[in-house]
Fold:
Amino acid sequence: AGGTPPATNANADAARANFLSAYATAVGITCNTGNTLSGNLAGKNLAPGNYCLTAEAKTGTLTLTGGPDAVWIFRVSGALTGNSFSVVMNGGQPCNVFWAPVDGAATMTDSNFKGTILAGDVALGAITLNRGTMIGRALANLAVTITGTSVIDCDTVSGVPACKHKKHHRHHKGHGDGHDGDDDNNEHDEDDGHKKGASK
Structure:
């Protein structure tokens, strides 16, 4: 209809591109008998590496053991669901843990979760956090819904100044921008610096 097109935010565009690139990398890892894990992950202690997970709900405690620069990538063959699921870091950093549900959403309920969720599917890429805690980032293609979950940016516990954390009771709709469910009160700058962890 004519007129001047709306201005775009270059940082937001770059952050979204990084997010989608990280998602594509995570869901594209090779799955074979050596790195495919089925079941709920309870009681497992995993070294750094790329893992392919089946879509059963995750429960119990998963321990990740590695050095400060170690990286874990989890490709989930469907939705990522956690019920009273705890992730414990033994020497690693939450910023270096990535979870990517393939063709599915992510839902964590009453869980103590760590890592970056990359919900990049164009049709089902949404994240829901119900109570519990999350140390990491929730990056979704469609929406992030947070109810009663204490969320701490993973850079904070890695020694890098980042976002303050607080108890959330809200619904955040971030269609198509890879938002991570932060408040709208400018407590957290919406810049690409906080998104770079998704593209490591």
